[in-house]
Amino acid sequence: MTASFRAPARLALLLLLTLCVRLAHGDVSISKPLTGQTYEVSDGVAKVSVTWIESNAQPKLTDIESYTFVLCTGPNANIKAVKTLAKQIKASDISGYTYDLSIDSDVGQDGYYYIQIYATATNGWTIHYSNRFLLEGMTGSYEPTVGAVTKPPDAQTSLANGDNTMVSIDSKSFSVPYPSQTGRTRYAPMQTQPPTKITMDKSSWTRRFPTSEVSYFTSFSSSLAQVTTITPGWSYTISSGVNWASHAPDPSANGGWYAASERLTRTPTLTQAAHTPEAIVSTSTS
């Protein structure tokens, strides 16, 4: 392999490894409680387990220092904090990204609530909300409200920029096409998952985002033109399960095996040249 081919190959491998490392980290993405899940009061308390996963966004979960859990209700545009359930719980004290909360029955009436998770990181903070769940057997006087939507409120993030200034992220920033942004901090759209099948006719396909442009430096730059790119966390969760289907048999057991010689239509033979001692290879039709 020549040097001209080695460099692109190494660059491609480095890029692949970088992407793999990047996708292994992420911000809080709450997977439980599930939407509409019911929790009943027992002995004056409702037990609710909150679980979150990696969302492929900054800050990394390994950078989270503490979590605060608040019981909320109300529509997305008018969030009401009902009670702080757990405050400044150290991330090191939480195992497996799951935390069990106890909700006293006297904090409100039966109805729909959700959990706010306030996470502090080494370079800022984030706020995320769980799906709405139903509490039954409540004895309090506060009446919860739901609103017309079931999707959790939008997440909020505030992170330190490269020059240590705090950047409060507006969710509208992610809707601006990436090539149109000029700031030192730019915002990429949320990562989406492919559907199980494509139903749209290929002739009607359109590009979702405009093509990007690239320009090259002609000399070394004394400063960075861009510090970081921020990607929002997933607004969805991915569930997985065990595939209990029996494994496929080996090729020799399912009739798919064959000897390579059976597929040959021309076989190599050795012939002797008339005036030279060297054997040369020729082919004949079998």
UniProtKB/TrEMBL annotation:
Domain Yeast cell wall synthesis Kre9/Knh1 C-terminal: 170-268
Domain Yeast cell wall synthesis Kre9/Knh1-like N-terminal: 39-133
Keyword Oxidoreductase: no
Role this protein plays: Involved in cell wall beta(1->6) glucan synthesis.
Family classification: Belongs to the KRE9/KNH1 family.
GO biological process, one term: (1->6)-beta-D-glucan biosynthetic process
Keywords, sorted A to Z: Signal
PANTHER family hit by this protein: CELL WALL SYNTHESIS PROTEIN KNH1-RELATED (PTHR28154:SF1)
Cellular component terms per the entry's GO annotation: extracellular region
Keyword GTP-binding: no
A Pfam cross-reference name: Kre9_KNH1_C
Protein name: Cell wall synthesis KRE9KNH1
Signal sequence residues: 1-26
